[in-house]
């Protein structure tokens, strides 16, 4: 274990550290699947020997993944290799790992995403008025980051950096508002299912998956949802029927300009439909007690309480990883 030479102090960043972060940013800005190995070696060559540098590189990778969700698989792969390559740090007799800081960042983004969506949806207060365009711009930004976060979490699970329990709790959270569902949550749910469905849909999770898809079927016929979202739900149902094999050719990596252009078109479409309704305040995720080998019931956040079902324990090299709203992955 490598002892950090410099103690982290909140708000204090040295000139040397700023130079490191600029160097890392320059490398990550050039990252593509084609030059992955070359640039990975360049990042490793940067002296990541303290918590400040480690936290900085994680934040930069995370921001790139959230703003460019098409490339989440590549960024998750980059995280997987960095977690294996970088030494653990020790500060104040506490073990600090790349994986722990990365997954704490996932937790922060979950909470931030909920705050931003609530902020965008709440009524105007006092003299502060928001135009429809300003409100939709906030929604669009929160939506983009949430979708990026969900997709990155799914890709990290596929790399066994997150446990199966976390995936089920994310699914239940996104399915929580069945009668008056939030379209952003549904879109995130469909994205997560398409990312991890093949891995998570196994016999020991049959009851959970059955409950999820009963809810998805109900929502796919909810005429209060846009036709785009209903079609997305039906596509997810069809994807499972087809054993999680895409019928259509999966899109390859896009240029960042194409990603941004599609987002602007999607935003214009949502403005055209109008946003005259507000969504209910979401209940916070409850990810159960740490260390339990039992997954909470599939209806725990959706009404009804069937018996708990044990899930297979798939080793990720760190079996103490769990998820909770306030202490997500803090037990690593």
TrEMBL record:
Residues 21-243 form the MIF4G domain. Residues 113-142, 251-318 are annotated as: Disordered. Residues 290-299 have a biased composition (Polar residues). One of its GO terms (molecular function) is mRNA binding. Residues 113-139, 251-265 have a biased composition (Basic and acidic residues). One of its GO terms (cellular component) is eukaryotic translation initiation factor 4F complex. It comes from the Eukaryota. InterPro entries: ARM-type_fold, MIF4G-like_typ-3. Keywords: Initiation factor, Protein biosynthesis. Belongs to the eukaryotic initiation factor 4G family. PANTHER family: EUKARYOTIC TRANSLATION INITIATION FACTOR 4 GAMMA (PTHR23253), EUKARYOTIC TRANSLATION INITIATION FACTOR 4 GAMMA 2 (PTHR23253:SF9). This is Eukaryotic translation initiation factor 4g-like protein. It comes from Trifolium pratense.
